[in-house]
Amino acid sequence: MTATAPAAGTGPRAYAAVDLGASSGRVMTGRVGRDLLELTEAHRFPNRPVRLPEGLRWDVLGLYAGVLDGLRAAGALCGGRLGSVGIDSWAVDYGLLDADGALLGNPVHYRDARTEGVAEKVWASVPADELYAATGLQYAPFNTLYQLAAARGTAQLAAAERLLLIPDLLAYWLTGEQGTELTNASTTQLIDPRTGDWARGVADRLGVDLGLFAPLRRPGDPAGALRAELLAELGLTGPVPLTTVGSHDTASAVAAVPAADERFAYICTGTWSLAGLELDAPVLTEASRAANFTNELGLDGTVRHLRNIMGLWLLQECCRAWGDPDLGELLREAAGVPALRSVVDAGDAAFLAPGRMPERIAAACRDAGQPVPESRAEITRCILDSLALAHRRAVAEAQALADHPVDVVHIVGGGTRNALLCQLTADACGLPVVAGPAEAAALGNVLVQARAQGLVGDRAEMRRLLARTQPLERYEPRGDRAAWRAAEDRLAGR
Question: Where in this chain does the record put each Carbohydrate kinase FGGY C-terminal domain (predicted)?
Answer without folding.
Answer: 265-452
